[in-house]
Design goal:
The complex is a heterodimer of chains A (about 110) and B (about 120).
Chain A (H helix, E strand, L loop, with lengths): L8 E4 L5 E6 L12 E5 L6 E4 L13 E6 L2 E6 L8 E11 L2 E6 L3 E5 L1
Parallel strand pairs in A: 1-9
Antiparallel strand pairs in A: 2-6, 3-4, 3-7, 5-6, 7-8, 7-9
Chain B lengths: L2 E5 L3 E2 L5 E8 L8 E8 L6 E6 L5 E3 L7 E6 L4 E6 L8 E9 L6 E4 L3 E5 L2
Parallel strand pairs in B: 2-11
Antiparallel strand pairs in B: 1-3, 3-8, 4-5, 4-9, 5-6, 7-8, 9-10, 9-11
Classes of the chains: A mainly beta (about 110), B mainly beta (about 120).
Chain lengths: ~110, ~120
């Protein structure tokens, strides 16, 4: 069971907008730690898609956007394209008695209908 | 640009130690600007952070794996390595190495392509 909770799957038709949620708690997202998002195309390594809650690395289309509020974060994809079909993971940091831990969500599979 | 490449045995027997190396090219581990991490992904499952090392040799491990994990660095070879002891079938996964800025935890921006490790007799 992942520390960060994501829906297992979402889907949308080409051109539509979809959102993927990432729910944490007071020891991670709610504690103020940043959320990052990764895109993993089939058979490839994850790629950093959004960093620091809402920032896009160079080369990432502005169709991808991120936000954070309270103990949750969201990834939005507008103008859905077939090439966006992939697994998406959120990642943050969790503070516990044993220290700071890097944590991922369980991943969300995006299907473009 | 910086590239990472994992290497090591693809098959490890149960109870033995898994050993992998990540070679960094196009940049220096000794720059001091990054944490160098290991992440794994079991077949059909999500990502799990294993731990990181800084060029100085300081390490930080996932508490759930800490008792079995050792990450080391060889700055002369621009490599860092992972050892995972007492492996079981549950350690079968694709293992990735990645880097993250230590100045601002801005996510892991460069990843290796991953290497598949199967634990089986």
């Amino acid at each position: 069971q992942s520390v960060l909770t994501q829906p297992p799957s979402v889907s949308g038709a080409p051109g539509q907008r979809v959102t993927i949620s990432c729910t944490g708690s007071s020891s991670n997202i709610g504690a103020g730690y940043d959320v990052h998002w990764y895109q993993q195309l089939p058979g490839t390594a994850p790629k950093l898609l959004i960093y620091g809650n809402s920032n896009r690395p160079s080369g990432v289309p502005d169709r991808f956007s991120g936000s954070k509020s309270g103990t949750s974060a969201s990834l939005a994809i507008t103008g859905l394209q077939a090439e966006d079909e992939a697994d998406y993971y959120c990642q943050s940091y969790d503070s516990s008695l044993s220290g700071l831990n890097w944590v991922f969500g369980g991943g969300t599979k995006l299907t473009v209908l | 640009q910086v590239q990472l490449q994992e290497s090591g045995p693809g098959l490890v027997k149960p109870s033995q130690t898994l050993s992998l190396t990540c070679t960094v090219s196009g940049g220096s581990i000794s720059s001091g600007d990054y944490y160098w991490s290991w992440i794994r992904q079991p077949p059909g499952k999500g990502l799990e952070w294993i731990g990181y090392i800084y060029y100085s040799g300081s390490t930080y491990y996932n508490p759930s794996l800490k008792s079995r994990v050792t990450i080391s660095v060889d700055t002369s070879k621009n490599q860092f390595s992972l050892k995972l002891s007492s492996v079981t079938a549950a350690d079968t996964a694709v293992y990735y190495c990645a880097r993250e800025s230590n100045l601002a935890l801005d996510g892991m921006d460069v990843w290796g392509q991953g290497t598949t490790v199967t634990v089986s007799s």
